[in-house]
Amino acid sequence: MGKTVFIDFDGTYAHNGVIPAAHVEAVRRAQRNGHRVLLCTGRPKALVAADDVAVFDGLVAAAGGYVEVDGQVLADRRFPAYLAARIVELLEAYRGVYILEGPDAAYVTPAARQRLIDLLTTGEHAASFGEAADGILAPLLITDDPAAESFAKVTCFDLLVPAARLATELAPEIGVVPSSIGSLGDKAGEFFLAEVNKSVGIAVVERHFGLDRADIVAIGDSHNDLEMVAYAGTGVAIEGGVPELLALADLVVPTPEQAGLVVAFERLGLIDSPVRAA
Question: Entry's NCBIfam families (predicted)?
Answer without folding.
Answer: HAD-SF-IIB (TIGR01484)
